[in-house]
Amino acid sequence: MNLDNVISVRKTKTIYRDGDRCIKMFEPGYSKADILNEALNQARVEETGFDIPAIIEVTTHEGQWAIVSEFIEGETLQDLMDKHPEKMDEYLELFVDLQIKMHSLKSPSLNKLKDKMNRKMGEANIDATTRYELRMRLASMPNHDKLCHGDFRPSNIIIDKEGVPHVIDWSHATQGNASADVARTYLLFCLKGNMPLAKKYLNLFCKKSNTARQYVEKWMPIVAASQSVKGNEAEREFLLSWVNVVEYE
Q: Of 165, 169, 185, which is closest to residue 8 (Cα–Cα)?
């Protein structure tokens, strides 16, 4: 295992390239269950035929766990957006089309999105009354079984040399309601401070998928609450502001 070529360094993991393999090395102490679940998610999504890096192995190296998968040569969609802002509309179309294609697929063995959100809301720093109201809203939302990424953003899409997009990082994958996945992506754009792009994305997705924008917006306080347990203090404050302004029927 060659760890000389570092691609990316994050808080709890480092990504390396070793020839045609991508090695995601986790810091000591990282949850073994979470690592194995991420690999299992990726393997299950791979079986749908969606364009993602193939899992090669899960292993350890000097006491650290690693997920080894196929290396995709290319650039992230985020890098392309940053380098070619004049092509933003074209890239956003690709982004939305890819998400809609993903939502057309099913992976019955994945964890259910509603179950994960319920668990995360239990960890969120919100009062009991608000948590109860949000859980009632979550329970009332339609049950779907669509493939949801959970962290669908341009930096998690690699465009290869043939122009084919590949989606990476399946640690948050679930099966559930696509509009919850869309609400998550909208909030991710907002967290980056790009409200105009967030609104443009949401309008484009709703138009292409024939989804009412108001329906996606109903998910946003639920998604914000469940996501507020992660990130830095500023991100948590922003997400909780979405929870606090919600109006309940």
A: 169
How far is Cα 146 from Cα 49, in angstroms, rounded to an integer? 14
The Cα 19–Cα 236 span in angstroms is 38
Q: How far is CA 218 from the centre of its chain?
A: 19
Nearest one of 118, 106, 45, 99 to 211, comparing CA atoms:
99
> pLDDT digit string (tens) for 1-38?
889 999 999 889 999 999 999 999 999 999 999 999 99
Q: What is the DSSP string of 89-129?
A: HHHHHHHHHHHHHHHT---TTSPBHHHHHHHHHHHSS--HH
Integer distance in angstroms from the first to the last C-alpha of the chain? Answer: 56
In the structure encoding, which two tokens stand for residue 228, read together? 């507020």
Kindly give the pairing relationship between strand 157-160 and strand 174-176.
Answer: unpaired
pLDDT in tens, 212-241: 999 999 999 999 999 888 767 888 888 888
Is the per-residue pLDDT at 247 higher than 70?
A: no
> Pairing relation of β-strands 64-70 and 21-26?
antiparallel
Global pTM exceeds 0.90: yes
